[in-house]
């Protein structure tokens, strides 16, 4: 239980008898679970029965996905022992998913890394963390001196806190002079970024989660929201239960729990979402459902280069090119995408295409489109983002409550730490490295010569690990991510990391296949063992205090970077002391975003609230951007102001359908699709140490359609070999489980390091966003 005192703080409360019995039962369950799965190290939860019985509660965002649920962490005797939803957080309104409710248990696995380790004579041995930090600084400097500034790199994550990413960028881009800064959000959100930039000239959604409460129609584009964003999906279900006119449309390549809950489920062939989106636009124009007032005032039409390849070549570079086109030219372009023609390409009936178009085109309906990895992990990820925006722009259903094209994020701070802070090779906390003004601003704030900031981007994520393989990069520091599980075409990049004269530093909380290739391992503080901020999918910045102490010599990734920076001679740029550095870093970072287009809340305000949406101007959050009723940055005197583009208009793009980089053929006759399950998060390094979650799904599997399983002669639980041109993996089959692929497709969750499915996947990527396509490649199956 909790209550607030006069200062708005959560008071400590004594456990009553009922709560104590419940807590004891939970503790017993964890002790039992620890004996069931000897391969996974669980926390020593038996100690909870001996605590004082006093719990204090403090706010935090959840550690897991990009939804940004607010939670209250219960602490007893210096240990996090309980979690409940924060009723003051507008994101989840007191509700959590199963991962959120069990999140604190991820802190207490028995194999937690608490000491630094250095590889000596081929073996990792524990050393004092000071020795490890000295070695990192020494190797970084030696590598830079011998091979040049672009031979050193840092690879982070959308799980980085905002201060983590900020100091990483400041050290590497500002002080060391290399743009070798990337984050694993390149693997999940880069196409969303380039989609926003090419259509609107500015990044991040224009809407917010309140759209869920206002929409009549929800269309999920290749997005299993019921499992991937369950709290948001529950808000959609609640809206539908309260109102009779609400519909949920599942548009997907595989039947999932979202399909089961939807009013209509429409299956399409992989990659053909491009053609279907164009067919919807064709129907909107044909039936005169265009919102002409909106289009004439606020939209312009463009075409770009189309022969852009698939991002499979080394050193591949591509910059999108735009040419204006007329509405008549755009209409002519769409003539190749009639519903009847697209039915043959996509497998979606002309009737269903017309139905989708009618939903978007009905002026009485408010429509919100949701998507995540299904569109972004796509060799034409930028294009499909553009095409869904095209639909909303043609009918003017954008930037008003309930009318929103909404790209969801997968990681807790992929927006805040990667997109806002700019921890990608081309980006700065404001603007891009190619822009002189942005470099000058960064140099002034960082107190470095402007010449330090290189105007040329270096390596995006896939190319960064290719460069490590080639030897162009010799030193890499990996924080808060597990690329030796997540990289596509994985064998190539693991072998590259193990080559002679490569030095790999890994900061993490548990052993992983990535720590296995490390020369130095640093013990990292986890989530509420440090102070920090995340930024969620709806532009909401969420602060959390350090609530419990990290174990052993573990320290935050922010402070690890600061320690190394000082050893390299950059004390002036990193002057903060360990007692108050987060607030000072935040206020320095805020200077990059001053002004009504991106103003951030102060450190004081963030500490008071369960998240604040930006732009935060004159004490008020901005719910819907580009709409002058809500957005103080609008200044053109019209109903909407798409101020990201020089013409103050949103751009509709003519983007064609193109087939996938690799499609099934006679030899490799199945599609492979990869993704997640509700119980586990990303590579499972945290959730597989939570007994309840591990017990629910203890290992990965391959989903098959029943007809394909019968033809192969396998039943659930039998082993199946999945083979591609790059590798193979053998794993148990699942037939008629929670998800059912269409015939000719298999689906594999990637959370289990025992089954490295990314040894099979293809490292082709969208040439504009540089984001790889994990959603489709060609495989064949054999009964093992």
UniProtKB/TrEMBL annotation:
Transmembrane region(s): 20-40
Entries under Pfam families matching the protein: Molybdop_Fe4S4, Molybdopterin, Molydop_binding
Root EC class: oxidoreductase
All residue ranges annotated as the 4Fe-4S Mo/W bis-MGD-type domain in the record: 55-111
Protein name: Nitrate reductase
SUPFAM superfamilies from the UniProt entry: ADC-like, Formate dehydrogenase/DMSO reductase, domains 1-3
Positions bound to substrate: 750
Superkingdom assignment: Bacteria
Record-listed E.C. numbers: 1.9.6.1
Keyword set, alphabetical order: 4Fe-4S, Electron transport, Iron, Iron-sulfur, Membrane, Metal-binding, Molybdenum, Nitrate assimilation, Oxidoreductase, Periplasm, Signal, Transmembrane, Transmembrane helix, Transport
Note on how the cofactor is bound: Binds 1 [4Fe-4S] cluster.
Species classification: Bacteria, Pseudomonadati, Thermodesulfobacteriota, Desulfobulbia, Desulfobulbales
Organism annotation: Desulfopila aestuarii DSM 18488
Recorded name of the encoding gene: napA
Positions that bind [4Fe-4S] cluster: 62, 65, 69, 97
